[in-house]
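Reopening this ticket.

The earlier resolution said the output was attached, but the attachment link was broken on my side. Pasting everything inline this time so it's all in one place.
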Amino acid sequence: YAMCQVATAVNPRFSVSGWYHAAPTECPAGRSDKRGSDSSLASTQQLRAITTIGDASTFAATKRVHEGGLEPVAAKKRHKDGQQREALGLRIASCAAASLLSYVPYGSTTSVGGADSLSELCLRRLSTWLAPTYLSPPVIAQLRKHFEQEGSVQLQQFLRRSLASEMERAAERADLCDGNVLTSYTHGMGGRWSGCGPPHLQRMLVFDGPVAGHFSTPESGGVDVAAADEVGCKLESVREFMCSEAFRAFICAVTGMQPQRRCGYVRRLRPGQDYTCARHAESVEERLEGAFCLVKQRSPHDVDLWDSGEVGGYACYMRRSAEEGQGDIAVYTSADSSEEEMASVSAVSNSFTLVKRTPGTLHFVKYVSCHAPSSRWDALAYYSHTS
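Inline output:
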């Protein structure tokens, strides 16, 4: 399915489109139903056919599905000069963001220890980015205790105030330049930002595309592309820092785990447009997931809106029961009580959230409402580790 929020000045409404998934059923005795043999096509097999991760033929397979009539390939758009020209709509190739997760090994080994294990060189590098509070040995000890008990931790006021303020101003400028993102699914694409799907799993923008499985529109819809690219570049710098050797040592001190490989990307979830759906981790191994978040929180009202969850944008982790196993989650029922919420993390600007995620854990980011104060901008990093 794909979700869409249609907002007007008078009557806002929601619209959900798609198809239902059901197990094949047998026809009654004496009745022939040609659809019975094909009923599996409208279930998980069809979804898997267009969500293969890391497959070079993914984009081509998706194109065939679209050309088969499940989704329009092109839509007509009228330009200012009055001429008709074909512009590709939201035909987002189905790589899922996981295809961006190409792990890179660290170049050295790091001993697992507490705050005392951080070298002087490491502390000096960390101090150029992190708020001084998080370099204090007692604070690191508290963070480690919390992480060992809860399996997650959120560090608010994470970066130095001067760095965070500069990023927040840039993000606010980009959102103002975009205006009403509800005008088009492709609004905000362009420059170094491209769309990422498929929409039955997620819809969002990723930075520094296009890459295999992504679709970038050649038009920016009047958006000041430079403003959004500025935010992307700043967040990409944060992502690189989150993948650095110095930050690896910080993670070791906070979690007691030693990252062996890392990867990540930068994304944007636009108000009234973007979301990710609940699904299992792509990896069969336990990993650490880190997310640095930027949102608009200029006033107490903005803070309350994000914290309430009413405008979405929060990240949620849920554990499936052992009986459910690692199966596909395309089918949901109202009687399904097998999911246990592990953590729900509100969007907080200048915060870093670190979560230990097992293969049986579902994760999603709630649909960002058009009433949200801003987009949600993230720099994400994933770490495979040893305890």
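Reporter confirms the inline version is readable. Helices lie at 44-49, 58-70, 120-127, 137-150, 161-178, 225-242, 245-255, 300-308. The CA atoms of residues 124 and 246 lie 9 Å apart.
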